[in-house]
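[INFO] parsing input record for Histidine triad nucleotide-binding protein
[DEBUG] input buffer:
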Amino acid sequence: MAGEPQADCLFCKIVKGDVPATVVKETETTVAFRDINPQAPVHVLVIPKVHYPDAASLAAAEPAVAADVLREAGEVALQENGDSGFRIVFNTGAGAGQTVFHAHAHVLGGRGFNWPPG
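[DEBUG] output buffer:
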């Protein structure tokens, strides 16, 4: 059921504490932790504690929690990267590079980024 923890979801296991992660910030509704395969000097994932497969389904079902994820992504970016700029990325679907199907934001910083990405 949407919103409920999924036994086979890596990020649900991190939320529950069954899988270790380097947590940098936690709130009532979110957990932020370092990516195990960083793509930039700063690469933190911010996830909702509730399970939805992607950012679009999270925003449709629980817009307040989606806003929490985005707010915390901004706060983590400032905490980890100061005011030197950052990128927040939501991959939605396998075709966009999503590999863990639990909504999450990638907070990237610590280097310059080109536009367009890809």
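[INFO] DSSP finds three helices and five strands in the chain.
[INFO] shutting down worker
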